[in-house]
């Protein structure tokens, strides 16, 4: 594969590297298609939060690709050139259970050309299938190695067991990737699949031992746990009428990255971890309160944050 440069883009604070696909959701009225994929959802969520974002992905040259590109454009996300490199755009068929939780069946293709970046983002994010499935995963790891130590790197493996290799191989890949990251975020399901029989605090400590400066595990209605070398905090989940959980973790991740940009450099002390976890949890709560991967805008998240602060200051109102 040939190498292609990534154009300089000063207004880009975040580069997201990951899969983009079409989610096919079976409903009573028939199948409905939406742009999806963990990488795309995080990039779109960042755009909704008005964070300058560029997206490196792989698509087919077809109608589904055009749908994805139109979706990204609505949030102001810039698709890096050369994306239409696959025979066809990937799909994931979601089947919702009675609680609104989604299980997926994938028709997935992942391959990226080598790239020669000519600019340095403040944050490089990757995760999910893009970091596990070759040939593209090898290119993703090479990119992380190139940027490691030069910018913040965030990683969310977003485990999809049915598409991964044997557990031991997947765990090795995860740990090699996590070792390159500044911040690693897992769901409790991810944690228990990667480290069966381990407690969540033990998994958090393992992530820090691998080299992460901050480790985060989300646990649905139980809230989220955040660790650093100097602090451990629990952020409660916001009570919400759950419509479905599609995209909730990606909304959490997008808001977390936006929070990292606002916080800037510095130690991950308890106060910082609490602020990051609070804003990310609110973003996830907004998302699960409506159908589909529909992350909040910056204005919606700001309003929710103000209401949360007011509720804490006036608990009897």
UniProtKB/TrEMBL annotation:
It comes from the Bacteria. GO terms for molecular function: ATP binding; kinase activity. Residues 12-296 form the Carbohydrate kinase PfkB domain. Keywords: ATP-binding, Kinase, Nucleotide-binding, Transferase. Transmembrane segments: none annotated. PANTHER family: HEXOKINASE FAMILY MEMBER (PTHR43085), PSEUDOURIDINE KINASE-RELATED (PTHR43085:SF1). Belongs to the carbohydrate kinase PfkB family. This is Carbohydrate kinase.
């Amino acid at each position: 594969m040939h190498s292609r440069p990534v154009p300089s883009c000063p207004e880009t604070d975040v580069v997201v590297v990951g899969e983009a696909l079409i989610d096919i959701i079976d409903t009573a009225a028939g199948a409905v298609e939406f742009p999806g994929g963990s990488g795309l959802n995080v990039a779109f969520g960042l755009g909704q939060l008005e964070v300058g974002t560029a997206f490196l992905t792989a698509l087919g040259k077809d109608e589904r690709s055009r749908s994805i590109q139109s979706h990204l454009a609505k949030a102001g996300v810039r698709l890096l050139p050369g994306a239409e490199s696959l025979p066809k755009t990937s799909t994931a068929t979601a089947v919702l259970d009675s609680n609104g939780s989604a299980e997926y069946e994938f028709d997935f293709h992942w391959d990226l050309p080598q790239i020669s970046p000519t600019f340095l983002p403040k944050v490089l994010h990757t995760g999910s299938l893009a970091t596990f499935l070759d040939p593209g995963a090898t290119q993703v790891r090479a990119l992380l190695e190139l940027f490691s130590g030069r910018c913040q790197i965030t990683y969310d493996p977003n485990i999809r067991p049915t598409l991964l290799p044997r557990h031991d191989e997947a765990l090795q890949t995860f740990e090699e990737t996590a070792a390159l990251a500044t911040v690693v975020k897992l769901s409790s399901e991810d944690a228990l699949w990667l480290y069966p029989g381990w407690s969540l605090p033990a998994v958090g400590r393992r992530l820090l031992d691998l080299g992460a400066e901050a480790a985060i595990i989300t646990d649905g209605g139980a809230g989220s746990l955040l660790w650093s070398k100097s602090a451990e905090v629990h952020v409660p989940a916001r009570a919400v009428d759950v419509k479905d959980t599609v995209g909730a973790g990606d909304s959490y991740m997008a808001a977390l990255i936006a929070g990292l940009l606002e916080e800037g450099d510095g130690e991950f002390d308890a106060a910082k971890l609490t602020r990051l976890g609070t804003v990310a949890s609110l973003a996830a709560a907004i998302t699960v309160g409506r159908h589909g991967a529909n992350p909040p805008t910056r204005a919606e998240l700001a309003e929710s944050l103000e209401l949360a602060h007011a509720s804490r200051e006036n608990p009897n109102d």
